[in-house]
Amino acid sequence: MSRVFITGSSDGLGLMAARLLVADGHSVTLHARSKARADDTRAALPEADGVVIGDLSSVAGMREVAEQANASGRFDAVIHNAGIGYRESRRVETQDGLAQVFAVNVLAPYLLSCLIDRPDRLVYLSSGMHRGGNPDLDDPQWTRRRWNGAQAYSDSKLFDVVLAFAVARLRPDVLSNAMTPGWVPTKMGGPGAPDDMSLAPVTQAWLAVSTVPEAMVSGEYFYHQKPGPTNPAARDVTVQDRLLRYCADLTSTELDR
Q1: Which helix (H) or strand (E) holds 176?
Q2: pTM of the model
């Protein structure tokens, strides 16, 4: 049995992955951004071990989530599932002055990776749209550029792959991978998304607990349990180090090796 923590698991793909893991006998801790949502989450999956509460759009909320997660004991795997979509028509700013899509999609998995007691496995949810992402960090908060929600999302999902590959390089004792669930009809994907919803949560659960050789790898990007093509920038060590430095400066927290 593995202990798994899943961010953004009050509904959608995170909750679906949790159900798969619980059905296979694993211990799962969920995450919701508010107490009200936590109550609904407990009702949705009463077999879960618990629900961590915290808003991942703020640095303070990220730290609260990490503190609660650590208080429950070390996890074997952490799935960074929480995310903001690409349909926002304007730049939404967090209390820290950051673009919300960057804060939730990039900074939260970075800081949680720094603060949560080191697990054996890390899974970062990305998207096929990451291949259109721009690794340039000149204006990641979109304060000078005209807002483009789809591009901001693509950039953030590229940075998720960059982060997964950077952690894989710097922590050889951890299996760190990124994956895409495909374009599925979630709230984020929309009702017209063509991919199979039943397959969407499988890969993240598989990467978190499976002992088959195909899952016991690090520094890869998966789609439906198979390695997939990535934006070449994700494997660029200079890009990786630049992102880590930027996130460290924003949070005053370094990723330990």
Answers
A1: strand 175-180
A2: 0.95
Q: For residues 210 and 41, give the distance between their C-alpha atoms in angstroms, rounded to a whole number.
A: 25
- Beginning with the edge strand found earlier in the chain, give each strand of the sheet holding 121-125 in spatial order: 50-53, 27-32, 3-6, 77-80, 121-125, 175-180, 221-223, 226-227
> Is residue 151 classed exposed, middle or buried when 0-12, 13-18 and 19+ CB atoms within 10 A define those classes?
middle
From the list 170, 64, 150, 152, the residue with the least C-alpha distance to 105 is 152
At CB < 8 A and 24+ separation, what contacts does 97-104 make? 97/141, 98/141, 98/250, 99/140, 99/141, 99/142, 99/152, 100/57, 101/149, 101/152, 101/153, 101/156, 102/140, 102/141, 102/152, 102/155, 102/156, 102/159, 103/56, 103/57, 103/58, 103/59, 104/56, 104/57
Residues classed as catalytic = 153, 157
- Residues linked to residue 79 through DSSP beta bridges, in sequence order: 6, 123
pLDDT digits (tens, 9 = 90+) for 205-245: 999 999 999 999 999 999 999 999 999 999 999 999 999 99
Assign 160 to helix, strand or coil: helix
Dist CA 119 CA 4 (whole Å): 9
* 152-207 residue pLDDT tens: 999 999 999 999 999 999 999 999 999 999 765 565 655 666 566 678 899 999 99
Q: Token pair for residue 171?
A: 């922590």
Bridge partners (DSSP) listed for residue 31 = 52
